[in-house]
């Protein structure tokens, strides 16, 4: 499947209610299952972890326009957890990503909708990001190696301190038009959610950097006709 076919698949599963709130997995046979179903299946068939090619995050009740406009930037923790699972680590505790690495995971797919924002009323935003492309543009492989050193893949349980060191180093880079990830997310939130329109020029520059770093494939659907629309 190419990116467009994946988005159309996700749209069709969304409209029929088959994509659950928050955590879902796209398998290589085109099935999309919830994290609960995935964990249950894993108990009987551990090889299912190798069948996962996409993580589908579904938030259909957001109150924030910034979530709809810049999901990868605002939902910052997702890409870090997903990338670590792809590289062979698992989080300690009860993680929605399950008990095993996801070595063949390629895509993060965001399904974002709002019932409170007028301009996005009856709209569904689906945005797909290629995990390896985004990780390389964020320098994640180098940062992981600098933090983990010779411990890289010596054990697959990710120490929470090491995880947040990786996150902090990555988000502290000034990759977004001279802004760190922290500052960029704050600026777009203030512009879209707090109506600070004087930030429009900075938001435009951050948007260009966002496109360059994450290379998102994005479609907005009208949920009455289920056709793609411009917003």
- What order do the strands of the largest sheet run in, or round the barrel if closed? 2-1-3-5-6-8-9
Structural class: alpha+beta
Averaged pLDDT, please? 93
Rg to the nearest angstrom? 18 Å
What is the overall silhouette?
A: globular
* Strands, count: 9
Q: What share of the residues does DSSP label as strand, in percent? A: 15-25%
Helix content: 40-55%
Low-confidence segments: none
Largest sheet entry? 7 strands, mixed
User: What gap, in angstroms, lies between the N and C termini?
Assistant: 26 Å
Count of spatially separate domains: 1
What's the SSE pattern? HEEHEHHHEEEHHEHHHEE
Tally of separate helices = 10
Overview of this protein structure:
The strands form 2 sheets. The protein has a 7-stranded mixed sheet with strand order 2-1-3-5-6-8-9, sandwiched between helices. 43% of the residues lie in helices and 19% in strands. The chain contains 10 helices and 9 strands. It has one domain (3-229). A hairpin with a 5-residue loop joins strand 8 (217-222) and strand 9. The longest helix has 15 residues, at 200-214. With 231 residues, the protein is an alpha+beta fold.
Helices and strands, with pairings:
Elements: H1 3-15, E1 22-27, E2 32-34, H2 35-44, E3 52-59, H3 65-69, H4 71-74, H5 76-86, E4 90-91, E5 107-113, E6 123-130, H6 131-137, H7 140-148, E7 157-158, H8 160-171, H9 181-193, H10 200-214, E8 217-222, E9 228-229
Parallel strand pairs: 3-5, 4-7
Antiparallel strand pairs: 1-2, 1-3, 5-6, 6-8, 8-9
Helix pairs in contact: 7-8, 9-10
């Amino acid at each position: 499947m190419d990116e467009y076919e994946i988005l159309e698949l996700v749209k069709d599963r969304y409209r029929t209610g088959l994509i659950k709130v928050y955590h879902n997995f796209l398998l290589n046979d085109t099935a999309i299952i919830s994290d609960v179903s995935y964990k249950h299946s894993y108990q009987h068939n551990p090889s299912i972890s190798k069948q996962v090619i996409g993580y589908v995050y579904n938030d259909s009740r957001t109150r924030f326009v910034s979530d709809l406009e810049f999901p990868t930037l605002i939902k910052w923790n997702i890409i870090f957890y997903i990338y670590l699972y792809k590289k062979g680590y698992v989080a300690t505790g009860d993680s929605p990503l399950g008990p095993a690495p996801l070595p063949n995971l390629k895509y993060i797919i965001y399904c974002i909708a709002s019932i409170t924002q007028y301009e996005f009323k009856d709209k569904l935003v689906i945005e797909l990001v290629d995990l390896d492309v985004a990780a390389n543009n964020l320098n994640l492989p180098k940062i992981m190696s600098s933090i983990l050193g010779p411990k890289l893949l010596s054990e697959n349980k990710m120490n929470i301190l090491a995880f947040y060191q990786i996150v902090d180093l990555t988000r502290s880079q000034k990759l977004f038009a001279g802004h760190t990830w922290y500052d960029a997310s704050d600026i777009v939130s203030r512009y879209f959610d707090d109506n600070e329109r004087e930030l429009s020029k900075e938001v435009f520059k951050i948007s260009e950097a966002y496109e360059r770093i994450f290379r998102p494939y994005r479609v907005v659907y009208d949920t009455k006709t289920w056709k793609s629309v411009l917003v």
